[in-house]
Amino acid sequence: MNSGPLTPTSQTSNRLRYKLATELVFIDNSDGIKDPYNAASVPIYQSATFKQSSATQMGEYDYSRSGNPTRSHLENHIAKIMSANRAFVVTSGMSALDVIARLVKAGEEIIAGDDLYGGTNRLLAFLNKSCDIKTHHVDTTSVDSLMPYLHPTKTRLILLESPTNPLFKISDIPTIAAVVHERCPNALVVVDNTMMSPYLQRPLEFGADIVIHSGTKYLSGHHDLMAGVIGVKDEVVAERIYFTINATGSGLPPFDSWLLLRGIKTLGVRMEKQQANAMQIAEFLEYHGFKVMYPGLKSHPQYELHHTMSRGPGAVLSFVTGDVEVSERVVESTKIWAISVSFGCVNSLISMPCRMSHASIPAAVRQERGFPEDLIRLCVGIEDANDLIEDLYSALVLANAIDVGQQNGNA
Ligand SMILES: Cc1ncc(COP(=O)(O)O)c(C=O)c1O
Ligand SMILES: N[C@@H](CCSC[C@H](N)C(=O)O)C(=O)O
Description:
By secondary structure, this protein is α/β, with parallel strands linked by helices. It is 36% helix and 13% strand. It has two domains: 20-265, 3-Layer(aba) Sandwich (Aspartate Aminotransferase, domain 2), CATH 3.40.640.10; 267-407, Aspartate Aminotransferase, domain 1. Ligand LKTG3HHF is lined by residues 117, 119, 165, 341-343, 357, 360. Its cofactor is pyridoxal 5'-phosphate.
């Protein structure tokens, strides 16, 4: 009898042979997963179970919760583009974070940012209440702010977003990783790299132990699926993660794996266009006097640091109007920009994080952490940049966020 779960074939040579734009579309057939017909598009193995030739010796796949060839193809491909030794795909970004959280035992501690995705904050609050796992929320823009909480045995995870969602704070990932590894040999540095995608930033190359992505965002690119991605450096940690995914049944189903594999092929072109559009929109808003949070602008306090780690600033940005009601009117007045949570899609989206993606963070905590209630977040798509700017300009004028008279010198 098979003594345990099958470990699917997700070993990969984590070296990039070509430039990333090439690797994104180049699906390596030397990964041990053979298709008898040499299909150009990896087939969808829509099968829950797999027939065996023996009652005692299982083949490579026995049951899709434990492993599925379409998922394995995707995991190999993702490991390569993330510079990971192993990668796993699960049913959502939150599921990826849940799998990582299961590496932490009761009584151990997590250090995370004071600006982070609302759902992550909610999961960490739940772990505190129900599992005796405490999180210290600190300003991760300063390595010093982590110091008082680094404990040689208790600290288990350091969870970073860089840039953070939604205030675009930058963490010095290599320095934090070096300090943490020196002081807390038991701790793992985890980076939620959703904002950047592996096309712009690969934190495993500069010290992180685990990188996660909400695959719902840039990796898939079309808002037609939910997925989470985990890239891991260390084989022992990878085996624990695989165990949890199989034990809890959170592996990504075959059809969604296929869709995600298809989406990844266009990540490079989408990101280049979205980022170029975002840069124009950030400059437009700054020109009109708004405080804009975007690491592509020289006015960003950590512009230099960000560019030591990343190939670009990405395509999400935030700005404030100075008045919550004005912000609401702006958001409700656009036509092309859809009022929607999420980001990373080919379509442009507009939202108010305090009312939407980050509403699960209690108002008092938001206030304590200096989270502006009038914040507007823009997720820039691939549309024509001038159309996007005109639509935004009309909404800003309609909401009285821009005083046209003053701009014309008539005020
Ligand atoms: C930075 C970040 N991490 C994780 C998640 C969770 O991803 P998902 O919605 O795919 O569960 C999100 C958004 O949802 C996010 O913005
Ligand atoms: N109602 C959802 C909100 C999802 S927000 C999705 C995304 N991460 C974003 O930042 O827009 C929830 O409660 O999780």
